[in-house]
Amino acid sequence: MEKSGAALPIDLYSPEREKYKAPLILIHGAWSSSTCWMPWATHFANLGWECRAVNLRGRFGDNAAAELKRLSFADCVSDVRQVIRAAPFPPIILAYDLGASIALAAAAEEKLSALVLLAPLAPEAEPPRAVKLLRLKYRPLLFLRRPFPLDKRDFRKVWLASGDEDDAGADCLVADAPALIDAFFTRADIGRGKIACPLLLAAARDDRIVAAAAQKALAARLGADFREYAGGHWLIGAAGGEEVVRDLHRWIVQKAGGEILLEPPAAAPQ
Length: 270
Known about the structure:
By secondary structure, this protein is α/β, with parallel strands linked by helices.
């Protein structure tokens, strides 16, 4: 894994033998950074994919807090579009949580090989009780319009499938922009742009942030394929992640077709 020199910090996972022209672009969710993708990116790299795990602005650096104060949802959409356009071949995007909302907005009218939305923040008439309680707890901090991190206790209680799980994933937590936290809670309607590529929505069966039924309804509205997996909202860190990666890999290869395959190496002359 190494850092690229792109405008946004990107963690690059290169396979031992690259098999696909299309890179995987990985977009993290709220209160998180690219490090949340390390297990999945490693699995995908072992399957022959080059993975580019993006950090949205303000995740790291001396000016992170100032960047987060100014950062808007529209800024993130614009940044992800630039990452898409910088790819050498129409990429495949895997986007989680709030990152899925950003990716949907960025992908409209862009050329992609496929788009996978993981535990997206589907609009709901009545948000789950856990979300209402979180919003009430963090309302004073949002009022101050200062970046702040998610409490690790809330991560364990709400993001994980059960309260007795360990802190796997909590080391990925960072402070986030007030505007992005607002977007996390308000869940503005998404998916109005035209998405021309194959689209998959993957939900977590025991998600306390957004009900799997709401995600299934969103998949139907978007015309997306739908998969449901065991675990809580922290789908990208749940047990059995390698099996989920392999299932997503099969879907991508099947839907994106032979166009994404690299040419096999030429045979050595006899």
